[in-house]
Design goal:
Layout (H helix, E strand, L loop, with lengths): L2 H17 L4 H13 L7 H13 L1 E2 L1 H8 L3 H8 L9 E3 L2 E5 H9 L1
Antiparallel strand pairs: 1-3, 2-3
């Protein structure tokens, strides 16, 4: 990873960590994890979404589908149901749900 990209990943992770009330050390660990996973070529918006998911225990459609054990098409149908937990965030890059809410809904 280039020095510039390292800085971008770390800056994005720190901004998200601070916004969520996390210690800056959490952001450093997250940036190292993202780099180790080969996420360096992702767009900044994708990196921020991933940082939000990890730091706030949120899940996007793919993660929620995994929790529920369903493919993406079936998850979209479930998410449209009136009894499905509402998304906590509706971002340009996708919706985010609380992992706890999705897991609780699965148990019901």
């Amino acid at each position: 990873m280039t020095r510039s990209r390292n800085y971008q990943v770390l800056a994005a992770a720190k901004a998200v960590a601070r916004a969520l009330g996390h210690d800056p050390a959490d952001a450093n660990l997250l940036a190292v994890e993202l780099a180790a996973e080969g996420r360096i070529d992702w767009e900044n918006s994708e990196l921020l979404l991933l940082a939000l998911e990890r730091l706030a225990d949120l899940v996007g459609p793919a993660g929620a589908g995994e929790i529920l054990g369903v493919p993406p098409g079936e998850f979209r149908e479930l998410a449209a149901r009136p009894d499905f937990p509402p998304a906590l965030y509706d971002l340009a890059s996708g919706r985010l749900w609380s992992r706890k809410d999705v897991t609780a809904w699965r148990r019901d």
